[in-house]
Amino acid sequence: MADFVLVHGAWHGAWCWKRIVAPLWAAGDRAYAVTLTGVGDRAHLLGPHVGLDTHIEDVVRLFDCEELSDAILVGHSYGGMVITGAADRLPGRVRRLVYLDAVVPRPGESWSAGHTPETQAARRAAIAEHGTLPAPDPAVFGLAGDDRAWVARRQRPHPGRCYDMPLDFDAARWAKLPRSFIDCTAPALATIAGSRARVRSEPGWQLTEIATGHDAMVSAPEALLAALSASA
After folding, report:
1. Which of 47, 92, 189, 200 is 20 to 30 A from 130, comparing alpha carbons?
2. pLDDT tens-digit profile of 20-56?
3. Checking phi first, is residue 71 left (phi over 0); if not, alpha (psi -120 to 50) or beta?
4. SS3 breakdown of the chain: % helix, strand, coil, rounded to 5?
């Protein structure tokens, strides 16, 4: 049996893991999906104070409330920032980090650090105008038809303060943790390109490729479940 803590990416919520949580429990594991403050069913808590530090605290509090001590921490997309910071706050309580097509930061980097200047400029302009990052069309995640509509109905603007907030953590302690990267390759989301290259240039990574789009928990749940089981 393994404990999985599932952390969604930008604009999403715990809802995005719907096709993953029940099968993990059915297989004898335990799965806890976090909704980060300001999105999903916690969208009513959105405000200018919500940042990466808030989201790290969301995960730490779940660990404490569920009394988790040996969990596999899974972060999707922006959630890679969150799980990295949470693991730093939870020494000895994380068995493995799983980056699902996710940002893999180095100390002092922000979510924006891996983006092109054009993407940075566009997102900062959106934040200046709205105070948030408006949700994109889920088609950019490789979704179509009912899946695209399902995600589009549920996405919410992401707290703007998260975008340029740097993350400090103990790199040496992080490097000792077992780490997996699940690369969603068809289509590959451009904003994750830097992390894809990074994990292929560094030692210590378990790498899995899934021929699906960025939201693998929606578009390829069976393949993702197999990859998560292998990480356990």
Report:
1. 189
2. 999 999 999 999 999 999 999 999 999 999 999 999 9
3. beta
4. 50, 15, 35
DSSP-based three-state secondary structure for 73: strand
Neighbouring residues of 178: CB distance < 8 A, sequence distance ≥ 6: 95, 96, 97, 204, 206
**Tokens 């997996």 belong to residue:** 180
The bridge status of strand 94-100 relative to strand 30-34 is: unpaired
Q: What is the pTM of this model?
A: 0.97
Q: What is the pLDDT of residues 167-205, one digit of tens each?
A: 999 999 999 999 999 999 999 999 999 999 999 999 999
Give catalytic status of residue 229 as yes or no: no
Note the pLDDT of residue 232: 86
Q: Which of 69, 77, 180, 231 is catalytic?
A: 77
Decide yes or no: CATH 3.40.50.2300 for domain 3-231. Answer: no
| Dist. CA 148–CA 138, nearest whole Å | 6
Domain ranges of the chain: 3-231
Start-end of H helices in the chain? 18-26, 52-66, 79-89, 117-130, 145-154, 171-175, 193-201, 216-219, 221-231
